[in-house]
Amino acid sequence: MSRRVKPAPRGVTLIELVIAITILSIGTLAAMRALDAAQRGIGDQTARTLAHQVALNRAAKLRLHGLEAGRDLPAQVEMGPFTWTVEVAEAETEGGLIAADIRVTTPDRPGARLVATVTEAPTP
User: Which of 17, 26, 84, 97 is such that its CA lies 20 to 30 A from the CA of 52?
Assistant: First the structure.
């Protein structure tokens, strides 16, 4: 008499499917959090770069026109999608120059700070 061998069950059980979906979901959530953090970091860097450029522009204008004329420059500057507030604090140095502490800010974004040495009169 011959014995029949029962064939092994084919397919995936329900518990195996649930475990696989759970593992894939955890991996997807981790990837989404990493992507969100990277996008936030890049977005802040754009604002920081624009703020630094506004500060460099103000320093160049102060050096070119002198601090006296630079006091009349506007306090609000538009660059990119932002309106920047520019504040300049003055302090005299030992060498007779003026240190202009330029601060550039906008609400809810990182800003920039730059210290430039300038003269009272325009550069010839």
Answer: 97
